[in-house]
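Dear all,

This email documents one entry for the complex benchmark we are building for the journal club exercise. For each entry we list the sequence lines for every component of the assembly. Then comes the predicted three-dimensional structure of the complex as a token string, followed by one or two observations. Please use this as the template for your own entries, and keep the labels exactly as they appear.
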Amino acid sequence: MIINHPLLGPRDSAEFVYLGAAALMDRPDPETASAEDWHDYAYLRDNPAGPHRELWFHEGGDRSILIVTRDTTTHEITGVELAREVASK
Amino acid sequence: MRYSGFKVIKEALTGHKGWKPAWRDPDPQPHYDIVIIGGGGHGLATAHYLASVYGQHKVAVIEKGWIGGGNVGRNTTIIRSNYLLDGNEPFYEFSLKLWEGLEQDLNYNAMVSQRGIMNLIHSDAQRDVFIRRGNAMILNGADAEYLDLAQIKKEYPFLNFDDARFPIKGGLAQRRGGTVRHDAVAWGYARAADSRGVDIIQNCEVTGFRIEDGKCLGVETSKGFIGAGRVGCAVAGNSSRLMAKAGMRLPIESHVLQAFVSEGLKPVLPGVITFGAGHFYVSQSDKGGLVFGGDIDGYNSYAQRGNLPVVEDVCEGGMAIMPMIGRARLLRMWGGIMDMSMDGSPIIDRTHIDGLYFNGGWCYGGFKATPASGYAFAHLLARDEPHATATAYRFDRFRTGHMIDEKGMGNQPNLH
């Protein structure tokens, strides 16, 4: 798979480390979250067949974390964003 | 119809006109006591043990495609019971014992071959870890044997003993491990279950569950509604998709695992060999092909095909321990979809919905577990309590902190 890095252009997916669903960016609030919230956050996944927003860490590159939108039934990548830009919106 | 040597000879002399289909092709009845979703190894094994051990005869297995078309026909056919943890080892040893009696139980030649499995050791620390695992296996009634370098050189002279980076220091062998003809497992269980009255309904996709007041009443399918006293789901690979229809989110990600077969060769490998410094395992099929594999690709996938970086990684592992593999040409490669759970261990449990039961999360170790998985799931479906060897495989272990994490990787499914 080729991931079209927003800053570096097309890069081989082998340069990246896969970190799982992008939903993991939405961490429960430590002040208010219950044990059940943490269980759901840490252990349960939507795991869809189809478009999936997911985190890829560019370990063998600029060490940025990307949000890649990829179809899990075809591996087609339809969108790539910098996670830090999404997080700061 | 019982198979026997006499029957084979008789049919050979009479033009093979007396063979009958190994199972029926029935239309679904309106209601069953137990409906199993998924006509793979685990689902069909569940049906067989429900009928043969637990006296359940109003049972159906429903399958969206053809039986045995998923992971039971896509794995590298290895059986073994070399686990460390208490939650796992008794279960896998129970499974290996069932494999040993499988062909007599099913009256079907599944080509169970106890040619042994040998895990290579490459460092002193790894030797300590493997010997500890061997001791855990022996404590649980399995067999394990430490092989020193001289024994390995004698038994496996073709390995690369001249590697400064990954020197071979020894090995942990399980002589009772081996390989099984994987398709025959599905067919044998199907035939045995069918002969006891289980309906195997193919080309019948589940489109939803009928759930009222927290109780599952049956399944909606492409062949209409099928009522059921209890519904068991055994669709590993697609567990999240199926259970989403019941409103559940699972502690599972689906990942693709690739496997490879070389052209047919004369006998070169005496048993199953695994590389301890990378991830590579290989055996030789009775047709002569070298059957091998390695890690999962590492990203969520339902595509049943992988990508090239893992192909390179697997082949590097093969070349590192067994340079002669470089002379063999690759014949086929394919992918299967694994239920990767959050601790690397499976789930066989009730759900929060009455009458709905779940079997999945097999990661990439489901094939060897097929008999015990079916047995334990049948026990759960028939008696509504877990089988003695499967009590740890609960949904709530992630809530209560009782994870069964053989590799100690935490909730990173692609690292198990």
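Observations: Chain A touches chain B through 26 residues (CB under 8 Å). The CA atoms of residues 25 and 54 of chain A lie 10 Å apart.
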